[in-house]
Amino acid sequence: MVKAIQIGLGHWGFSWTRDVIPKVPTVEMVGYVDTNPEATARVQNELGIDPKLCFTSLEDAAHHTDATLAICTLRTEAHYPVVKRCLELGYNVLVEKPFTSTIAQGKELVALAKAQGRVLMVSQNYRHQPAPIAAARLIAEGKFGALNMVSIDFRRHGPSQGYRYWDMPDPLLADMSIHHFDLMRFVLGDEPVRLSCRTWNPPGSPFRYDPSGVATIEFARGTIVSYRASWMNSGPVTPWAGEWAMDGAEGQIAWSSRDHFRDRTGPDQVSLLALDGKPEPLKLDPVAFPDRTGTLNAMATALETGIIPPGFSSGEDNLGSLALVRATILSASHGGDWVDIADVMH
């Protein structure tokens, strides 16, 4: 059993408290931290959290509990200082994505975790779904031969779907696309080397910053990814993980994941299309701990057994996904100029 505290009980943090943490039986909660009394009162009143387990500061929680894991579910700009303090206090840390705002901050936290002998994990929850797990396995096995092109589409219309973060900087690339960028690395089992990206803000958009973009991303083994995504698309809604078409020398793997839209929840899907054949659906294995429960269970497993489970996104590994975010933002700011990932990582 892993004893844990949660830091950040706001809108998303409340969802963790209610929908995620109770579903992972190997995690025992011994503390909840938030400086906002309204957020604290909400978990107490609506979820029945014992007031004795609620603290207004990390130091207070550290002094009164024996937790070894800190679950950080705060706004992005608070990740770096809070995670740094957690590591300094000797906690293992699971933090929401993106785990820092800059590569330099990310590298500092990775180095601090190593120096402290602690585990730092980023909650890349899209990895813990049946379709990307199956797709990653198929690619690793060489299904349909070497990949040459991957096409990914993400379409949502924010104004009609309850989106509310209109003033968020880089609402597409930093907040949404990081999921897709991380899945690229996870499914391909490869690392990007360079990319070009353009973004824009359509007429009549309520977004302050660009909600739409396209990117061409080249990976080390030669695979080219064509990525198109928008929060202002009036076409058919895609699943949250997007619609993927992965072209190999001998056929195509098509898949989609996290098909949640309003009152519709559809299953993950994978289809195999051999050359001159017909599409054949692939039966997917169920995932015992899907989505965010998967990241928390993976962290608990790593701490209890010392074995890093499949799909584990360490802070060090996640620097590659963060680099894709920073590189696409940089490229877009220069009108689509090609950016080498190595230059962003330095």
TrEMBL record:
> Gfo/Idh/MocA-like oxidoreductase N-terminal domain: from which residue to which, for each copy?
7-123
Q: Which Pfam families match?
A: GFO_IDH_MocA (PF01408), GFO_IDH_MocA_C3 (PF22725)
Write the Enzyme Commission number(s) for this entry: 1.-.-.-
GFO/IDH/MocA-like oxidoreductase domain location is 134-237
The alphabetical list of record keywords is: Oxidoreductase
Keyword presence, Oxidoreductase: yes
Q: What class of enzyme is it?
A: oxidoreductase
Keyword Oxidoreductase among UniProt keywords: yes
**Gene3D superfamilies per record:** Dihydrodipicolinate Reductase, domain 2, NAD(P)-binding Rossmann-like Domain
Taxonomy, superkingdom:
Bacteria
One GO MF term attached to the UniProt entry: nucleotide binding
Q: Which InterPro entries match?
A: Gfo/Idh/MocA-like_OxRdtase_N, Gfo/Idh/MocA_oxidoreduct, GFO_IDH_MocA-like_dom, NAD(P)-bd_dom_sf
Q: Which PANTHER family match?
A: CONSERVED EXPRESSED OXIDOREDUCTASE (EUROFUNG) (PTHR43708), CONSERVED EXPRESSED OXIDOREDUCTASE (EUROFUNG)-RELATED (PTHR43708:SF5)
Family to which the UniProt record says this protein belongs: Belongs to the Gfo/Idh/MocA family.
Q: What is this protein called?
A: Putative oxidoreductase YhhX
The organism's lineage is: Bacteria, Pseudomonadati, Pseudomonadota, Alphaproteobacteria, Hyphomicrobiales
